[in-house]
Specification:
Shape: globular
CATH class: Alpha Beta
Helix content: 10-25%
Structural class: alpha+beta
Number of strands: 5
């Protein structure tokens, strides 16, 4: 059984990463997630957005489904990389300290965030 980080935050984002070759796969994954779980499915961005180094689609969800959604994403991502992070009042820390990866970790572009220690 895979161990995932503790469910420490009230809200989360999961960013599914894809490219032109995996667009159909990623679209099917986020649509299935939206049908199977109470998640808010964001836009399917076929461009770089925010700190993300690949095209992406965001799933927004709360802690009540974390323990079922995260293993489901792991089982259904079929090689796609997924960034999962908690949501706090500090976007920099959310994308550096409050995150974990399903699949290979990626280098984020953190230049848009104001780094502060609060």
């Amino acid at each position: 059984m895979t161990l995932y980080p503790a469910n420490d935050y009230s809200h989360y984002h999961a960013h599914i990463y894809f490219d032109a070759a995996t667009l159909t796969q990623a679209t099917a994954l986020v649509e299935q997630a939206g049908e199977s779980f109470p998640v808010k499915v964001g836009r399917i961005h076929q461009k770089l957005v925010g700190p993300h180094p690949h095209w992406s689609c965001q799933l927004a969800f709360n802690r009540t489904i974390y323990d079922t959604l995260i293993p489901w994403l792991e089982a259904h991502r079929n090689g796609l990389t997924v960034l999962v992070h908690g949501l706090t009042d500090n976007a920099y820390k959310d994308h550096t300290e409050h995150l974990f990866w399903l699949g290979e970790s990626q280098q984020l572009d953190l230049s848009a965030f104001h780094r502060h220690d609060s």
